[in-house]
Queue: 3 jobs
Job 1
Amino acid sequence: MILCCKEEFRNQQRQLICSGCLCAGKSKRRGVVDHAKFFKALGQRVKKLRKERGHSQEDMIAFGFSARHWQQIEAGRPITMTTLLRICDAFKVRIAMVVRGTDKTIYHD
């Protein structure tokens, strides 16, 4: 199937935009990742880390996050790699600790 230049450009643009975050857009290929499940699991992990450290969502303002942004992170909204690094810095943990295991149910067959 040949795509018109305009459609091909839109597809490339979507991929470029998504490559700047931890999301790759919607794909219809077999074995693809369910991004929504990944970010939901990531949000739950971040919430758990916050609570283990005795912080409220409002406390996260001291780490440079707005309360609204933090709520969105914990709700499972897609985040950028920069945001993930900021979260790791705030909790003084490695990325692996935050993301380990969050991919268990995200693959479609």
Job 2
Amino acid sequence: MLTLAFLAVRLLAAAVIAPPPAAAVRATVADGSVWADVVRGDEVVATYRLRAATPRTRWLALDVDGDGRVDLVGVDGRGLGTRIEVWRATGDGFVAALPSG
């Protein structure tokens, strides 16, 4: 539980103090999958498949680790607890920092 509280504080701090990114990242759910779209201006410059989609998961785009890249955080408030997953931007894709599943 302490880890979840620490992550929540870190997410809020990163969202407040992170500089604006050169490119935006958005999560899109389509064809039964979650996709990370990297956008510059009005143009999608790259798309990465993260995982299979689940209907209750909501996605946030923010710099979780302070490296200047926009990461994706999935939050699923199901049942008795909240499940959080973090996908870190690497510059050439995304990797699961907190595993899903």
Job 3
Amino acid sequence: MEILNRFIAVDNKCLWPQLRTAANGDIYMTGFNEPCHGMTEGDVDCFVSTDEGRTFRFRGIPVLHDEGSNRMNHNSGFTHGGDFITIISGYTNRPTEIFDYEYYKENYFNKSELVIPKVASSSDGGRTYRVRKLDYVFESESIIPYGEIIQMEKDVLAASIYVLGTNKASEFSKCSRRCGILISRDDGRTWSEFHEIDKGLNETSIIYLGNGELLALCRTAEKQRLLLYKSFDSGKTWNYLEDMSTRNQIPASMISLNDGRILACYGSRLNQKSIMYRIGDERGTEWSEPYVLVVLSETGDMGYPSCVQLDDGTIVTAYYADGIDQHTRYHCGTIRWRI
């Protein structure tokens, strides 16, 4: 492994970044635009790199938050037609400034609810968006989008989400949760199906391997581990394959590399906080041992890596941290590297 460059891509924002590559090679980055863990009003910003991940510049805001709320949880990808698309949710009862956590938890978080997710799509490089409410709803559960929106067979998209048995934040610790995929059969205009991966899971990364095969790398609600699942029928049913990390190594993102292998990258919140990765074969059946990509010293809140690979083999990985030795506030960092 060779690290080519490291950058502060976006400063003074949390992001939980997501990277996606457009057909023209531009790299899109989306994430929460305030320097906190979703504790205030705010939105998901869209940034774009036109220089292979060396710099990112602001392009637009897919969904504007309502007063007293935010938009933060999201998934993202591209339609078959080339539009950038994202589903974004968030929370009510958010202040405009950052308070002490215990005060915030008692007066804001515990009195908040999830907002209805909205779908935003852009045909002009992430500058402007067509926005509508997500048309798939559960009778007594709430949707939190997270991860990828991926292309499958013609006009079919799959969106990674997880589902909670409540919309009230005060009930999150005891409610049911499960992860799965939403399916659109008209290139993202409507979302008509949900297929569960498994219960007791939340933030999930998905990739399409072709011929109806998908992989899902899922965060567990308990013990904070990563579990690998596979589908052979376009996501309708799923089989557990293996544990992919130890405790407190979450969440992950996966991409298919140019040579067909699979890269899984994830944050490790053990004593040595770091961004780690593993390499899998083309079908996701055999995996390398874990490797450390970068150590993030003196950080508390960190991780959520997301990766893309360029045509020349360079990998761009984005992550967030609430501060490291060299940069002591919230930021999104990027690493350009080669395996």
